[in-house]
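Here's what a typical entry looks like (RGS domain-containing protein):
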Amino acid sequence: PLQLLYSTYVCSAACSSIEVEEVSRGRVYTCLTPPFEELFDWVEEHTLTLLLEPWTLLTTRDTDTFQKVAVREETRQVESEQYRELQTRYEEAVHRLEQHAVAQACRPPPPPLEVPRSPAMWSAVPERYRGYRLGSLLGHRMELQHFTSFLQDNTASIHLTCWLDIEHYRRIPHKDKAQREDKSRLIKDKYLNRKYFFGPDSPATRQQQDEVMSQSLL
């Protein structure tokens, strides 16, 4: 299943490539045998970086709209099934990160990950919105709904669903082999195809697609 995730999203030939940097792809590839739980940490951080731009555009657009219309505060207690699922995943992810932090304290820290930063992009975000992260959205229903709609309007929602599916796969216990295989198969069918990763609008480079293809044939 871990090799499938690598071939689906990370390597150059993947049809659903999320354009991971070559250094990060190399780190993930070297850790495939034997695989371990933190294998896709670099990929996950890169995916979150991809979501930064649409989130920045959304907050900027909302700020402009807010300045043009009258503001009326309204509180609604609406908890959809999707929101409850996201809330559960977020809480489990936080718990897992806390456990991971304790485990990391017992071994040498990994080398720092070189992730490209975009300070100019953050400078375009209003000051009051710069503290928002995906985790922060889960505590604000209306912001989460706006962000999801914005991603859908800009054909970027697949990046968010890809991240959520990987997160779901990661939190499945290794002993539940059947469930992990089902989730792995779902990820492959949903993203490793010509509509996303191997399609004409794929976020992956040709090299990344080739690497994913070579891994899927192992």
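The two ends are 12 Å apart (CA to CA).

More examples are in the samples folder.
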